[in-house]
């Protein structure tokens, strides 16, 4: 009883947190805005009432201390890389170095306006120009655009570049081939680029089925999109043959760089035969993911595709000064406002600069070692989708637990009770009950041993007390949430008491 | 040295952020049955191996890194350190200290997309609150968790309109930011409705006659920006009426700071509202990452791109939040998704939410009014100078364009040494204006935020007067 009474007062971590709107009280406020302080006229003369809103936006009325306590409490309900191991497959949740935050906070960078004259932004332009060259070297290709705001945006940009290239040759192919292991963004980007996605299946070793690929290739194929290593964590040994087949048919190869962390300084997409690459800086180059973004998805292309890259590109004059070039007649045009997610790109620059070639190579060495180490520690617990050496991540199937009435989802939820973040679940879709595990290089041996021990304990529980898994999590701020109900009757915003009578959908 | 047992001959690893202690790598290799790290890569064919170190500068320590980056920083002069009147989508508003205190919390900063809701209630609830704030600002019924920027958000709006109406063109006012229109044109190259331009009347408002003439039975949507790129206030209600009469949607590109006072797109009939909300809580950062947003009417809810957070209950009946309506999204629907969007700008949305809570219900209208009054004051003073004339007809809000008696770029360059960023010279915009041969190189766009004091404005006008007088 004493605990319950204390619980009423100490809501943290256990009960619903009121929203910032629910905490609002009339007349309470935090920030004050300076009065205009200029000679003027009544507001009605400056802005006629017909142009004005009927009522103010119902923003919360709270004090600054309320804001700080509210969001501090919310932060305690969250989990980040700084909290603990985050083995979310294909997301490369590596440690985000703090020095990069200090760099991004320099006023000379954060206070730059995109329309200030180039002469006053030389340091920033040099940084972007240099990052372009570094990404070209890392990918084994020719030239980058730093504009795309995320990996999926890079995919769309790359496909539009491919489309422009074919058009310049008087060709108009209609299809893009994608393996069944591809990230979901691939087919969605293909459609947005005006192409029809065609699936090529995986062979018994988890790579592209070469026979099927041969059958699909013809002059109507614009490109093949591939992740290598793919989402099974498997390096496709046939990549040279795949590239030859696609190029012989007149198509180009697009490299989804989401899994680049496995091959930095080991094998470059350009050397594998790829023509376009995107990097997810928030995966490979350690920029923080921010709970869903911002990221950056720069693409790098082979020299034949350079004329089609978006505008503007950063160029260097003979005198060593830098400028933004807009005059590029064959460009596909702009894909984002201004130069891109500069604040993210500069963190990626700092990461590459600090590590250098040997540091980057060590990243891949240890990312692959760490993944193989965890695989070895859990291989007897699950079915292995493909029993071979993995790269930076691997996929196991939780089907052996089905006989205990336990699914991959239950394993994931039980990991939460163990204080760990679960792996990616139910992806790739070709593996039944998939758990996709990517530890990254920034986990220590002890951290990996802890993760392995948790998996082993949970699988043991699945055999002896499966209900522990099915009921999990029980140590989180909330128990399992009714996602079906959320989708059936969507409540997508705060409802205010005065609106309740109306009851419009979503309002 | 950490991880010393994979040190390569001649290698210069100064920084690697890996935690492996002496002996760890050897022990782990043994556990996985490999003799060397190189063995782990045995499935990478020799023909595609790089076989040499990457040709990049050798790594550096943290202290060296910071010194280098500070040297690069020293070769930029950020607008924020001058008296700046730059705007055109990115604004020099004050970012309260409380914003950095919250967004710097690493539980928010270092989290991924909230795929495990039971351990992600912090970011999920903050997105739900952000969606509410955007709905309140725009007067719309549903908002998503954010998008990259206003340009890509406009392209997504066009795709929604095309899917909803099954029509083939989208009528876009030249009052929409030229860069947003460029992004729309690029991303519409092979998908969605085809953009058709409508010019502006003298004074920089959308030409009503041309707009009426451009809308037809093939029109999926009409797009206007409020305030327009040049700062003019559009008749959004009339645009809505024209669009709806033709069975088209109205898309409004909105500046959320002005919505502290301006009529909401929702109450004027908008079906989709998009825009850039960098002004709230986010530094200018050379234009990115900012904060794209999108809000729609309830009937378009299931066509929204990107993440959406909804309220639900847990097994014990406790309120909680989840990503919802995910059958719209690429990771479920693949090629049948409403959009390819995966990442959004969640941390930027959190910054905006904190700033909006700090301003509150009373502070936002005050902010809007201070910007408005100071902008009007600057405009009226500039228009008293010889040779300076109005380009944008009033009423204006916090941004307007004037025509100068000299090239605008010359004025900008002349005032930098005086400590002013005078505004955006608009010569580059000429190529984006349909049916006009105005070179615009003598037109300057100026924005005024709450950071610009009367004393700064007065000193600026004096400095402009001196340059204009010399001419």
Highlighted features:
heterodimer; A: 507 residues; alpha/beta; Aspartate Aminotransferase, domain 2; Aspartate Aminotransferase, domain 1; 2 domains; 4-stranded antiparallel beta sheet; globular; disordered C terminus; B: 471 residues; 7-stranded mixed beta sheet; 15 strands; disordered N terminus
Describe the structure.
The complex is a heterodimer of chains A (507) and B (471). By secondary structure, chain A is an alpha/beta fold. Chain A has 2 domains: 99-109 and 117-354, 3-Layer(aba) Sandwich (Aspartate Aminotransferase, domain 2), CATH 3.40.640; 364-486, Aspartate Aminotransferase, domain 1. Helix content of chain A is 35%, strand content 10%. Chain A contains 16 helices and 13 strands. A 7-stranded mixed sheet of chain A has the order 1-7-6-5-4-2-3, sandwiched between helices. In chain A, strands 10-11-13-12 form a 4-stranded antiparallel sheet, covered by helices on one side. Chain A has a two-stranded antiparallel sheet with strand order 8-9. In chain A, a hairpin with a 5-residue loop joins strand 8 (313-316) and strand 9 (322-325). In chain A, helix 4 runs antiparallel to helix 12. The two termini of chain A are 39 Å apart. Chain B is of the alpha/beta class and 471 residues long. Chain B folds into 3 domains: 4-48, no CATH class; 81-91 and 362-470, Aspartate Aminotransferase, domain 1, CATH 3.90.1150.10; 97-353, Aspartate Aminotransferase, domain 2 (3-Layer(aba) Sandwich), CATH 3.40.640. Helix content of chain B is 34%, strand content 14%. Chain B contains 13 helices and 15 strands. Chain B has helices at residues 24-32, 62-74, 97-103, 106-109, 121-138, 150-165, 178-187, 208-214, 236-245, 330-333, 346-382, 408-415, 454-470; strands at residues 83-84, 142-143, 169-173, 194-198, 219-226, 249-254, 272-276, 292-296, 309-313, 319-323, 389-390, 399-403, 420-421, 424-425, 443-447. Chain B has a 7-stranded mixed sheet, with helices on both faces. In chain B, strand 11 (389-390) and strand 12 form a beta hairpin. Chain B is globular, with a radius of gyration of 26 Å. Chain B starts with 23 loop residues before the first helix and ends with a helix. Classes of the chains: A alpha/beta (507), B alpha/beta (471). At the A-B interface, helix 3, helix 4, helix 5, helix 6 and helix 7 of A face helix 1, helix 2, helix 3, helix 4 and helix 5 of B.
């Amino acid at each position: 009883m004493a605990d319950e009474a204390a619980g009423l007062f100490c809501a943290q971590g256990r009960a619903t947190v009121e929203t910032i709107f629910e905490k609002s009280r009339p007349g309470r406020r935090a920030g004050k805005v300076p009065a205009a302080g200029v000679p003027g006229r009544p507001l009605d003369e400056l802005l006629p009432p017909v142009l004005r809103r009927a009522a103010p936006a119902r923003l919360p009325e709270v004090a600054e201390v309320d804001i700080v306590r509210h969001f501090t409490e919310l932060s305690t309900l969250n989990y980040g890389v700084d909290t603990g191991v985050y083995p979310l497959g294909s997301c490369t949740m590596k440690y985000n170095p703090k020095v990069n935050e200090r760099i991004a906070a320099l006023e000379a960078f954060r206070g730059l306006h995109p329309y200030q004259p180039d002469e006053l932004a030389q340091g920033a332009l040099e940084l972007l120009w240099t990052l372009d060259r570094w990404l070209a070297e890392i990918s084994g290709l020719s030239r980058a655009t730093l504009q795309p705001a995320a990996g999926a945006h890079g995919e769309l940009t790359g496909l539009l570049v491919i489309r422009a290239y074919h058009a310049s040759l008087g060709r108009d192919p209609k299809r893009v081939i994608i393996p069944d292991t591809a990230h979901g963004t691939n087919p969605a980007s293909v459609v947005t680029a005006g192409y029809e996605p065609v699936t090529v299946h995986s062979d018994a070793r988890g790579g592209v089925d070469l026979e099927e690929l041969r059958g699909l290739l013809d002059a109507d194929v614009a490109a093949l999109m591939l992740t290598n290593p793919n989402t099974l964590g498997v390096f496709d040994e046939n990549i040279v043959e795949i590239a030859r087949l696609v190029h012989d048919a007149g198509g180009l190869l697009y490299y989804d760089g989401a899994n680049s962390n496995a091959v930095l300084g080991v094998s470059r997409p350009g050397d594998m035969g790829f023509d376009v690459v995107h990097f997810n800086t928030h995966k490979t180059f350690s920029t923080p993911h921010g709970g869903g973004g911002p990221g950056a998805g720069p693409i790098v292309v082979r020299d034949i595709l350079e004329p089609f890259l978006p505008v503007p590109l950063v160029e260097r004059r003979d005198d060593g000064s830098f400028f933004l070039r807009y005059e590029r007649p064959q460009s596909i045009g702009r894909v984002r406002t201004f130069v891109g997610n500069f604040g993210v790109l500069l963190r990626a620059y700092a990461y590459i600069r600090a590590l250098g070639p040997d540091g980057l190579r060590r990243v891949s060495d240890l990312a692959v070692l760490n993944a193989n180490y965890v695989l070895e520690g859990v291989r007897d617990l699950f079915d292995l989708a493909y029993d071979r050496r993995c790269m930076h991540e691997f996929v196991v199937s939780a089907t052996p637990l089905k006989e205990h009435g336990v699914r991959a989802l239950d394993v994931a939820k039980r990991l939460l009770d163990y204080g760990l973040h679960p792996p990616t679940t139910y992806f790739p879709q070709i593996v039944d009950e998939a758990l996709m595990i990517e530890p990254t290089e920034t986990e220590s041996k002890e951290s990996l041993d802890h993760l392995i021990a948790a998996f082993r304990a949970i699988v043991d529980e699945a055999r002896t007390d499966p209900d522990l898994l099915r009921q999990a999590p029980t140590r989180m701020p909330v128990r399992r949430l009714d996602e079906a109900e959320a989708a059936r009757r969507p409540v997508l915003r705060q409802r205010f008491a005065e609106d309740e009578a109306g009851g419009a959908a979503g309002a | 040295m950490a991880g010393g047992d994979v040190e390569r001959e001649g290698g210069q690893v100064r920084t690697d952020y890996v935690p492996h202690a002496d002996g760890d790598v050897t022990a782990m290799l043994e556990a996985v049955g490999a003799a060397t790290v190189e063995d782990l890569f045995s499935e990478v064919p020799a023909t595609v191996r790089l076989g040499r170190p990457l040709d990049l500068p050798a790594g550096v320590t943290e202290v060296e890194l910071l010194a280098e980056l500070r040297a690069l920083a020293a070769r930029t002069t950020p607008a924020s350190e001058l008296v700046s009147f730059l705007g055109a989508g990115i604004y020099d508003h004050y970012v309260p200290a409380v914003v950095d205190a919250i967004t710097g919390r690493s539980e928010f900063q270092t989290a991924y997309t909230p795929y495990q809701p039971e351990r992600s209630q912090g970011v999920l609830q903050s997105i739900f609150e952000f969606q509410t704030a955007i709905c309140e600002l725009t007067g719309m019924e549903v908002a998503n968790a954010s998008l990259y920027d206003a340009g890509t958000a406009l392209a997504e709006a066009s795709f929604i309109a095309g899917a909803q109406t099954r029509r083939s063109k989208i009528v876009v006012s030249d009052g929409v930011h030229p860069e947003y229109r460029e992004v729309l044109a690029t991303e519409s190259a092979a998908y969605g409705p085809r953009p058709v331009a409508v010019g502006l009347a003298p004074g920089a408002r959308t030409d009503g006659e041309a707009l009426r003439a451009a809308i037809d039975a093939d029109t999926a949507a009409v797009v206007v920006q409020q305030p327009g790129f040049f700062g003019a206030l559009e008749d959004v209600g009339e645009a809505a009426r024209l669009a709806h009469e033709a069975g088209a949607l109205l898309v409004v590109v909105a500046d959320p700071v002005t919505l502290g006072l301006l009529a909401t797109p929702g109450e004027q009939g908008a079906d989709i509202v998009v825009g850039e909300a960098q002004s709230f809580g986010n530094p200018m950062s050379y234009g990115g990452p900012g904060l794209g947003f999108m809000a729609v009417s309830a009937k378009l809810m299931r066509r929204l791109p990107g993440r959406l957070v909804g309220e639900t209950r847990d097994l014990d009946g406790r309120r909680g939040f989840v990503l919802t309506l995910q059958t719209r999204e690429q990771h479920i629907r693949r090629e049948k998704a409403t959009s390819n969007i995966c990442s959004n700008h969640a941390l930027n949305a959190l910054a905006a939410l904190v700033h909006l809570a700090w301003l509150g219900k009373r502070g936002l209208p005050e902010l809007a009014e201070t910007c408005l009054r100071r902008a009007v004051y600057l405009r009226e003073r500039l228009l008293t100078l010889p040779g300076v004339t109005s380009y944008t007809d009033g009423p204006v809000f916090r941004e307007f364009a004037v025509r100068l008696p000299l090239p605008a770029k010359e004025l900008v360059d002349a005032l930098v040494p005086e400590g002013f960023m005078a505004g955006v010279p608009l010569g580059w915009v000429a190529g984006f204006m349909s049916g006009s041969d105005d070179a615009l190189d003598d037109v300057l766009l100026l924005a005024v935020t709450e950071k610009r004091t009367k004393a700064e404005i007065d000193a600026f006008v004096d400095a402009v007067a001196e340059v204009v007088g010399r001419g």
